[in-house]
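RECORD TYPE: inverse folding
INPUT: C-alpha coordinates
STRUCTURE:
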Protein backbone atom coordinates (compact mmCIF):
# COMPACT_ATOMS: atom_id res chain seq x y z
CA UNK A 1 0.00 0.00 0.00
CA UNK A 2 1.41 3.34 -0.98
CA UNK A 3 1.22 6.50 1.07
CA UNK A 4 -1.11 8.06 -1.53
CA UNK A 5 -3.76 5.41 -0.88
CA UNK A 6 -3.52 5.07 2.90
CA UNK A 7 -6.84 5.29 4.82
CA UNK A 8 -5.67 8.36 6.68
CA UNK A 9 -4.76 10.15 3.47
CA UNK A 10 -8.14 9.35 1.91
CA UNK A 11 -9.91 10.63 5.04
CA UNK A 12 -7.92 13.88 4.93
CA UNK A 13 -8.66 14.30 1.22
CA UNK A 14 -12.39 13.91 1.94
CA UNK A 15 -12.29 16.51 4.73
CA UNK A 16 -10.38 19.09 2.75
CA UNK A 17 -12.47 18.55 -0.33
CA UNK A 18 -15.85 18.90 1.40
CA UNK A 19 -17.18 22.48 1.53
CA UNK A 20 -20.84 21.80 2.31
CA UNK A 21 -20.75 22.94 5.95
CA UNK A 22 -18.14 25.68 5.73
CA UNK A 23 -20.66 28.52 6.03
CA UNK A 24 -22.38 26.87 9.00
CA UNK A 25 -19.07 26.43 10.83
CA UNK A 26 -18.00 30.00 10.07
CA UNK A 27 -21.35 31.34 11.33
CA UNK A 28 -21.08 29.23 14.48
CA UNK A 29 -17.70 30.78 15.17
CA UNK A 30 -18.58 34.36 14.21
CA UNK A 31 -22.14 34.65 15.58
CA UNK A 32 -21.22 35.00 19.29
CA UNK A 33 -18.71 37.72 18.48
CA UNK A 34 -21.25 39.56 16.33
CA UNK A 35 -23.94 39.31 19.02
CA UNK A 36 -21.56 40.74 21.66
CA UNK A 37 -20.64 43.60 19.32
CA UNK A 38 -24.32 44.30 18.60
CA UNK A 39 -25.23 44.38 22.30
CA UNK A 40 -22.29 46.67 23.04
CA UNK A 41 -23.30 48.98 20.20
CA UNK A 42 -26.84 49.17 21.58
CA UNK A 43 -25.57 50.12 25.05
CA UNK A 44 -23.12 52.71 23.77
CA UNK A 45 -25.70 54.16 21.37
CA UNK A 46 -28.26 54.45 24.18
CA UNK A 47 -25.69 56.26 26.35
CA UNK A 48 -24.80 58.68 23.55
CA UNK A 49 -28.49 59.42 22.98
CA UNK A 50 -28.99 60.00 26.72
CA UNK A 51 -26.09 62.43 26.88
CA UNK A 52 -27.33 64.34 23.84
CA UNK A 53 -30.95 64.57 25.03
CA UNK A 54 -30.07 65.52 28.60
CA UNK A 55 -27.53 68.15 27.54
CA UNK A 56 -30.22 69.67 25.31
CA UNK A 57 -32.62 69.52 28.27
CA UNK A 58 -30.23 71.54 30.44
CA UNK A 59 -29.66 74.05 27.63
CA UNK A 60 -33.38 74.47 27.02
CA UNK A 61 -34.16 74.98 30.70
CA UNK A 62 -31.49 77.68 31.06
CA UNK A 63 -32.66 79.38 27.87
CA UNK A 64 -36.35 79.31 28.82
CA UNK A 65 -35.61 81.03 32.12
CA UNK A 66 -32.98 83.47 30.79
CA UNK A 67 -35.22 84.82 28.01
CA UNK A 68 -37.90 86.19 30.37
CA UNK A 69 -38.02 89.81 31.49
CA UNK A 70 -39.26 88.65 34.89
CA UNK A 71 -39.12 85.18 36.38
CA UNK A 72 -42.32 83.88 37.93
CA UNK A 73 -43.11 80.67 39.80
CA UNK A 74 -45.59 79.71 37.05
CA UNK A 75 -43.00 80.41 34.35
CA UNK A 76 -40.49 78.14 36.08
CA UNK A 77 -43.19 75.47 36.51
CA UNK A 78 -43.97 75.69 32.80
CA UNK A 79 -40.28 75.32 31.95
CA UNK A 80 -40.01 72.22 34.16
CA UNK A 81 -43.17 70.79 32.56
CA UNK A 82 -41.61 71.16 29.09
CA UNK A 83 -38.59 69.08 30.09
CA UNK A 84 -40.45 65.75 29.91
CA UNK A 85 -40.99 66.19 26.18
CA UNK A 86 -37.45 67.41 25.58
CA UNK A 87 -35.76 64.59 27.49
CA UNK A 88 -37.97 61.79 26.07
CA UNK A 89 -37.47 58.82 25.91
CA UNK A 90 -35.57 59.33 29.16
CA UNK A 91 -37.91 59.68 32.16
CA UNK A 92 -36.60 62.78 33.87
CA UNK A 93 -39.66 62.98 36.13
CA UNK A 94 -38.86 59.66 37.86
CA UNK A 95 -35.19 59.00 37.16
CA UNK A 96 -33.79 62.53 37.13
CA UNK A 97 -33.99 66.02 38.49
CA UNK A 98 -33.52 69.49 37.01
CA UNK A 99 -32.34 72.48 39.04
CA UNK A 100 -32.21 76.08 37.84
CA UNK A 101 -30.33 78.82 39.70
CA UNK A 102 -29.81 82.54 39.33
CA UNK A 103 -26.31 83.67 40.28
CA UNK A 104 -25.15 87.27 40.63
CA UNK A 105 -21.71 88.63 41.50
CA UNK A 106 -21.72 92.14 42.98
CA UNK A 107 -17.96 92.55 43.43
CA UNK A 108 -16.39 90.08 41.01
CA UNK A 109 -15.24 87.79 43.83
CA UNK A 110 -18.30 86.36 45.60
CA UNK A 111 -20.96 84.98 43.24
CA UNK A 112 -24.15 84.43 45.24
CA UNK A 113 -27.02 82.09 44.41
CA UNK A 114 -29.96 84.52 44.50
CA UNK A 115 -32.63 81.88 43.97
CA UNK A 116 -32.85 78.23 43.06
CA UNK A 117 -35.71 75.96 42.02
CA UNK A 118 -35.88 72.18 41.54
CA UNK A 119 -38.17 70.15 39.35
CA UNK A 120 -41.15 68.94 41.38
CA UNK A 121 -40.36 65.21 41.19
CA UNK A 122 -37.44 62.92 40.57
CA UNK A 123 -34.38 61.67 42.37
CA UNK A 124 -33.07 63.30 45.54
CA UNK A 125 -29.99 65.35 44.61
CA UNK A 126 -28.58 68.73 45.56
CA UNK A 127 -27.16 71.35 43.25
CA UNK A 128 -23.43 71.08 42.71
CA UNK A 129 -23.28 74.88 42.80
CA UNK A 130 -24.54 75.18 46.38
CA UNK A 131 -27.83 76.23 47.95
CA UNK A 132 -29.89 79.40 47.65
CA UNK A 133 -28.26 82.30 49.54
CA UNK A 134 -24.80 80.67 49.54
CA UNK A 135 -21.69 81.60 47.61
CA UNK A 136 -21.84 79.64 44.35
CA UNK A 137 -19.12 77.10 43.59
CA UNK A 138 -18.26 78.29 40.08
CA UNK A 139 -14.68 77.03 39.85
CA UNK A 140 -15.39 74.93 36.78
CA UNK A 141 -18.34 76.84 35.37
CA UNK A 142 -17.48 80.43 34.52
CA UNK A 143 -15.70 83.50 35.90
CA UNK A 144 -18.13 86.31 36.63
CA UNK A 145 -17.23 89.97 36.44
CA UNK A 146 -18.55 92.50 38.98
CA UNK A 147 -22.26 93.10 38.41
CA UNK A 148 -22.70 90.11 36.10
CA UNK A 149 -25.52 87.56 36.40
CA UNK A 150 -26.05 84.09 34.95
CA UNK A 151 -28.74 81.44 34.91
CA UNK A 152 -27.42 77.92 35.46
CA UNK A 153 -29.48 74.81 34.70
CA UNK A 154 -28.36 71.46 36.04
CA UNK A 155 -29.78 68.11 34.99
CA UNK A 156 -29.16 64.91 36.91
CA UNK A 157 -30.23 61.54 35.54
CA UNK A 158 -29.92 58.00 36.86
CA UNK A 159 -28.89 56.14 33.71
CA UNK A 160 -29.42 52.42 33.19
CA UNK A 161 -28.03 50.88 29.98
CA UNK A 162 -30.39 48.95 27.74
CA UNK A 163 -28.51 45.67 28.01
CA UNK A 164 -25.85 46.31 30.63
CA UNK A 165 -23.30 44.28 28.75
CA UNK A 166 -20.48 46.82 28.63
CA UNK A 167 -21.67 49.80 30.66
CA UNK A 168 -22.21 49.89 34.41
CA UNK A 169 -25.74 49.90 35.78
CA UNK A 170 -27.19 52.90 37.59
CA UNK A 171 -24.82 55.73 36.65
CA UNK A 172 -25.61 59.28 37.72
CA UNK A 173 -25.22 61.55 34.70
CA UNK A 174 -24.80 65.29 35.24
CA UNK A 175 -25.18 68.13 32.74
CA UNK A 176 -24.95 71.86 33.27
CA UNK A 177 -25.73 74.80 31.01
CA UNK A 178 -25.05 78.49 31.59
CA UNK A 179 -27.11 81.27 30.01
CA UNK A 180 -26.93 85.03 30.36
CA UNK A 181 -30.22 86.76 31.21
CA UNK A 182 -31.32 88.81 28.21
CA UNK A 183 -33.17 91.55 30.11
CA UNK A 184 -31.43 92.27 33.41
CA UNK A 185 -30.22 90.19 36.32
CA UNK A 186 -33.39 88.17 37.10
CA UNK A 187 -32.53 88.43 40.77
CA UNK A 188 -35.94 87.44 42.14
CA UNK A 189 -38.78 85.05 41.42
CA UNK A 190 -42.17 86.68 41.41
CA UNK A 191 -45.22 84.75 42.64
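DESIGNED SEQUENCE:
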Amino acid sequence: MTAAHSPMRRFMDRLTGCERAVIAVEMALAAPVLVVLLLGALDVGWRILAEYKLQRTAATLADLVARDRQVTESGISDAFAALAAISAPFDLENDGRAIVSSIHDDDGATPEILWQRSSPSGIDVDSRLGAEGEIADLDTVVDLEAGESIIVAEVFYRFDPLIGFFLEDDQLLYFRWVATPRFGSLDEVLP
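NOTES: The radius of gyration is 29 Å.
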